[in-house]
User: What shape does this take?
Amino acid sequence: MRGVREPIFHYSLSLLLCLLAFFFVSIPCLMAEIINVPEKIRVVVADSASELNLSIKGPYEIRIFETEELLDEGRTFYNIKIRPCAYGIDFGKKKFKIYAIHIISQRQPAIYLGKRLYRGSLQIIKTEDGLLRAINIINLEDYLKGVLFHEVSHRWPMEVIKAQAIASRTFALYQAEQNNDKHYYLKSDVSSQVYGGVYAEKYRTNKAVEETRGEVLVYNGRLLPAFFHATCGGHTEYAKRLWDVQAKPLKGVRCIYCKNSPHFAWELDLSLAEIEKKLNNAGHKISGITAIEIEGRDPSGRITQLILKGRTRRIKISAKDFRHILGSRVIKSTNFTVRIMDKDVRLEGKGWGHGVGLCQWGAFSMAKKGKNVKQILNLYYPGAEIVKLSDSYKD
Assistant: This one.
């Protein structure tokens, strides 16, 4: 009997292993299938402009924004001035009586806006305020190649750059999902993620994009808002305290890796007069500040509320708004102490950025200690999975 039952046992075990393998391989693929991947990424590369300077090398077409009806075509031109006007858009010597045009080049890359070179195509829109907005329409992976150099050093360890590539790809798709009813999905500055076009592409950052092609972070089958920042200062922040985001992987974690960051600890002196001026300009009326008190801190150590006492009144303001009003590049984070010294205020703080998600300098130290991309992302986005977009994803 034993000799008869052993083959059955082996067959059953093999079948079980195959089913388990199918389950673990298929689930990420199924997750990837339900992710909405736009055909192109739409990123603002110029806004509120009274004039744009455009050059194209090689054959091009100009089409109506919504209908794609051909308006004009031609070959190479340099330094065309584009201006908004009462009837539409002045395109050099040509007059277009419409509010938006789509410029398509047959060569890649070939479109220069000012001194920057872009892949893809370009939309020029006359906005409601009578100014111009330029939107670069580009493949996702090409967009990422213009992002990474501005977010992490191309000289950093490859595992950090790959982690940033996955985070940036996920963030871009998440923003596209959130803004799918707008003309654009992202901006090209720190309000989204910095994007510099072709001249921002470097060999190692491009390599990181290619080696992680199509890889994104998901939680419960949905794209994760994969926020990131320079230095957390010892603990990342819970996203819900800043935005309407409650994903479990963004609740905040302890970080022991960013202590060697140049932004881990900082000091700043501001004049009371400057603080009063900026607060008043933002609608927080106060004069003769005599005290600035910290009302509370969250579990990450960041300040929640500040109370400012003036000669005749006191105001309460969130640390987030206080930092925004004074300048997010001036006050590096909301984790600081306050001390008034005569007519100045001394702030001593930790970290740089909003503190949510990936700590870039922490990731740098992890990679230097031999940690790989999965270990880095597992620390800063606990519970999230790295999945590859399905075969239906084309770029």
Notes: Residues 1-32 have pLDDT under 50 and may be disordered. The chain is about 25% helix and 30% strand. Residues 219 and 384 are 5 Å apart (CA to CA).
